[in-house]
Amino acid sequence: MPNAEGRKVALITGVCGQDGSYLTELLLEKGYIVHGLKRRSSSFNHPRLEHILDKDYPNSKNFILHYADMVDSTSLTNLLKLTQPDEIYNLAAQSHVKVSFELPEYTAAASGMGALNLLEAVRGAGLADKTRIYQASTSEMFGKVHEVPQSETTPFHPRSPYGVAKVYAFWIFVNYRESYNMFCCNGILFNHESPRRGETFVTRKITMAAARIKLGLQDCVSLGNLDAKRDWGHAKDYVEAMWRILQQDKADDFVVATGITTTVRAFCEWSFNRAGLPLRWEGEGVNERGIVASGEHEGKVVVKVSERFFRPAEVELLLGDPAKAKAVLGWHPEQLTSVEKLCEEMVDADMELAKLEIMNVEMKKKLKVPY
Ligand code: NAP
Ligand code: G4F
Fold it and tell me: Going by DSSP bridges, is the β-strand pair 301-305/289-292 parallel, antiparallel, or unpaired?
């Protein structure tokens, strides 16, 4: 149901994250009024939205940020009563797998119970018949995979508190669809990255390191399991799939993936190569090293392995089967950004950021900024 101006209204939880920023751009472009849920933070926490908040950004006036929190049900109910959305995209989560082992209870509350809090808020606000709701489900639910590739029918076997919390969120969405006939959908998205990816996820950690090492800002990067395999796509392409999922006639669940898997090691090689630091490997296990193979920095150790980044239980291989998304949603990964192009885009963007960092450091010294 469109609002008074004839525009659809969307609410995005987790709007400050990687996907939230791309989805906001997409929905504004499509003419939506977009409400974004952000949580309180002691410092500025929406750098990914800064350009959209600029008054010159197209349809910037249709984007409104609100404070709420997935673990504060009252704030969710109040926000739903206020905004009356046609569509909700539940992207908010403690989304770091390794961190979820250190914060299991909070991860369960935000990434698991948060989904239930949202669904109950929709019902409490009297929107159960009107609002379509998307849940950011994840390939981490497949964990110790029972088959290759993974599809909508592959059993779940999560390997982290994050994965377990997301399995709860998945099933509570299915349950509310079956129990109350609500338009609840799960997008089971495989890993998707971009220049806006959080700095502690492996792709971004690597592309930042390659750029910063090349420009002399960093000596080396320490990584964990180099042999893990992930099905990596571009976040910008994946938010398009989220939107398509909510435009279907019938609520359903979809795997969103490229159907190609790559090792962390290969992503590392491509990134350092793109930065002009081609790699060779020496040693084994925690003694393995990535060494610059040729050029100005030949012989320099730029990648080390550290146990610190190993997980108590690892997801070794993720490879998705996007057949249903292709057939039903008309979402075709082979026509979208390849993992090689994604890697290049990320390294190039991090090169520019590293140059900016150098200028910033020099400027701060000049102006005597104390921190
Ligand atoms: P992200 O960058 O970590 O963004 C998550 C957002 O959730 C952040 O803006 C965070 O706020 C917010 N958040 C965390 N706890 C919250 C709380 N208690 N209340 C309100 N907001 C909260 O993640 P992403 O990569 O954009 O992913 C979006 C969603 O898709 C997540 O649910 C993730 O689990 C899921 N997912 C991601 C991938 C992937 O490969 N990217 C794949 C499958 C599923 P701050 O900005 O203040 O930290
Ligand atoms: O980049 P990662 O931290 O992503 P992970 O664990 O696959 O989770 C991401 O994708 C999920 C979808 O499958 C999302 F649901 C989740 O929210 C998140 O966005 O790690 C990827 C792989 C892992 O096997 C990890 O062990 O890279 C390996 N790895 C090796 N060294 C590392 C590192 N991961 C990180 N973060 N840091 C390392 O130094």
Answer: antiparallel
The rounded distance, in Å, linking the Cα atoms of 79 and 11 is 9
Distance CA 206, CA 225 (A): 13
* Structure tokens, 368: 């005597």
Which amino acid is located at 279 in the chain? L
116 class by beta-carbon count within 10 Å (0-12 exposed, 13-18 middle, 19+ buried): middle
Tokens linked to 246: 């909510």
> Closest-lying ligand to the alpha carbon of 99?
2
- How confident is the model at residue 222, as a pLDDT? 98
Q: How far is CA 18 from the centre of its chain?
A: 5
DSSP 336-362: S--HHHHHHHHHHHHHHHHHHHHHHHH
Given a contact cutoff of 8 angstroms between Cβ atoms, the answer to whether 193 and 254 are in contact is no
253-282, pLDDT tens digit by residue? 999 999 999 999 999 999 999 999 999 999
User: Measured between alpha carbons, how far is 363 from 15 in angstroms, rounded to an integer?
Assistant: 32
pLDDT tops 90 at residue 370? no
- Binding site membership of 138 for ligand 2 (Cβ less than 6 Å): yes
Q: Which residue has the tokens 């998205």?
A: 189
Preceding amide of 158 cis, omega within 30: no
Q: Of the ligands numbered here, which is closest to the C-alpha atom of 265?
A: 2
Whether 39 is in the pocket of ligand 1, judged by its Cβ within 6 Å, is: yes
Burial letters 296-311, b for 16+ CB under 10 A, else e: ebeeeebbbbeeeeee
Per DSSP, the three-state class of 185 is strand
